[in-house]
Amino acid sequence: MWGEPAPSTAPKSACAMAGVIARRFAVSVLDALPEGITGIDTYMGGASEITAGFLLAGDRPALIETGPAKVAGAVAAGIADAGLDPADLAWIVVTHIHLDHAGGVGDLVRTFPNATVVVHPAGARHLVDPARLLASSARVYGPLMDTVYGGLTPVEAARIRAAEDGEVLDLGGRRLELLHAPGHAKHHLAVFEPDLGALFAGDGVGVLLPSTGVLRPATPPPDFDRDLAVASLHRFAERNPAHLVLTHFGPITPPADRLAEAEDKLLRWCETAERAAQEHGLELDHIEAALRERFEREEGHRALDPERFELLNSYESNAAGLLRWIQQRQAAATDG
């Protein structure tokens, strides 16, 4: 099953060779993952340290997160480099169906013919028929849809396992506990490996890119919910993880402090958005401006990496999710 790492195809130029060497030997935050977990940098958008997948060893190995369809080949290559035969991958787990986490799943199930796709029950039907998901994604991502994300090839229903809350996957020699963790999205789950104490949080904690060192909430449309997100953070803390692992990007420490920081920042982002809506009305531009005014200074604007954040966690996309959340809260209050 687990063989020697597969040889890489020789680059065709000295520049290409330099790139390969730099990627192979550069220190990465993924190197801090515990033994038995291999981090795979997807090079989403052509840039390093934005989106990762995680390969967990075992008699029935699992991949957590696929990245978008545009980088499915890079993920498959990372699995091959780890020495795993395509026939032996047993599980492909996606924390939710946003394209930066699950867009490559339809391509990867064809590369790994025996893998079962594990997803939140609310997301399963969208992997079988992704038309609505792709239409919604195109509205959110705009031109990045074609250049960075790509589509989502449908997955046969027989290849999908809709995971109930608390369900356990058997990897042979280790197990994974699947935790429903809504807030970022209603179809969000987290993955906990209890022997190592490793919690794979998807976007439930937020985004921390190594190039910035800044933890930022992730509040995109269409169904961000503050109260559910906070409840999920509390659920993560109850597991007392020894390793807190983000899809964007890698392990962050110390876990307990980072979880507390995530809750504090999320609440302040929501409060800032609500105040802007109260003062200026339900206008996206005003909410985005209020977030920028308060948090660019706090984050240290010059230290940020706006190009990477723009790919997956911009102020605009977060403001759009917060606006929709405020609108839904107001509508519920009116109906009540």
How would you describe what is shown here?
The chain is of the alpha/beta class and 336 residues long. It is built from 12 helices and 14 strands. The chain has one domain (14-254): Metallo-beta-lactamase, Chain A (4-Layer Sandwich), CATH 3.60.15.10. 42% of the residues lie in helices and 15% in strands. The chain has a 6-stranded mixed beta sheet. Strands 7-8-9-10-13-14 form a 6-stranded mixed beta sheet, with no helix packed on it. It has a two-stranded antiparallel sheet with strand order 11-12. A hairpin with a 3-residue loop joins strand 13 (243-246) and strand 14 (250-252). Helix 2 (72-81) packs across helix 4, helix 9 crosses helix 12 (315-335) and helix 10 (284-299) packs across helix 12.
Quick overview of this protein structure:
With 336 residues, the chain is an alpha/beta fold. It has helices at residues 14-25, 72-81, 99-102, 105-111, 121-128, 131-141, 144-149, 226-238, 255-280, 284-299, 306-312, 315-335, and strands spanning 37-41, 52-56, 62-64, 91-93, 116-119, 160-162, 168-170, 175-180, 189-193, 198-200, 207-208, 215-216, 243-246, 250-252.
